Amino acid sequence: MGETSSDRSAIIVVDPQPDFFEGGTLPISGATQTAVRIAEYLSTHGEDYALKVVTQDWHFDPGDHWSDHPNFVTTWPVHCAADTDGARIHPALADESWDVVIRKGQHEGAYSGFEGTSANGSTLFDVLKAASVDAVTVVGFATDHCVKATALDARALGFHVSVVLDLCAGVDADTTRDAISEMSSADVTMVTSRDL
Ligand SMILES: [Zn+2]
Fold it and tell me: Which of 65, 69, 96, 99 is nearest to 81 (CA)?
């Protein structure tokens, strides 16, 4: 599978779902262009990874994670309702050969992929450990929320973690800047796709 270093790596594509794209209920500026870049990156580098993982926000009744008067920090407009078109994997990435699909947030807000499970009930941590993965590359949506939470959890669980900044998009410029600084402080490596 073309590992070029001692690390066995997984790529985790966080929440590429239509509700987070232009025209969705909680749109992130630049999401469509970012998804196209992720697809291009996977076409040229996908085989470098032992596992290709995608996460989905998958809400049935997430309590006050949804709000009619959202503050866009801890409460949000209705998004990614389970089994709706807005929650499926965006067409730009739907045809990838995903090894694992992790769904999270069924009954509460869940920002980190490590809070979710695969179709057979395995946690993301268990999936990565079973594949002897020790490094993860995190991309997707949104830099300042679910990408950050997933990267910080991965680091806390002992993985080497890289975030590819041009393959991520954030909700807000200020909180995205804060997220990058918080991740860097936790020894998450910030790279661009040209570095890889
Ligand atoms: Zn959510």
Answer: 65
In the block, residue with structure tokens 């929650």: 87
The catalytic residue among 19, 104, 144, 153 is 104
15 catalytically annotated: yes
Q: Checking phi first, is residue 15 left (phi over 0); if not, alpha (psi -120 to 50) or beta?
A: left
> Which residues lie below 8 Å from residue 127, measured CB to CB, with a gap of 6+?
51, 53, 100, 102, 118
What's the pLDDT tens digit per position in 104-117?
999 999 999 999 99
Tokens 């920090």 belong to residue: 73
Give CA–CA dist 155/188, Å, rounded. 7
Full set of structural domains in the chain with CATH:
9-195 (3.40.50.850)
H runs (alpha helix) in 21-69:
31-45
Q: What would the two tokens of residue 122 be?
A: 């395995």
pLDDT tens-digit readout, 47-59 = 999 999 999 999 9
Catalytic site includes residue 144: no
Distance 56 CA to ligand 1 centre (A): 9
Biggest distance spanned by C-alpha atoms of the chain: 49
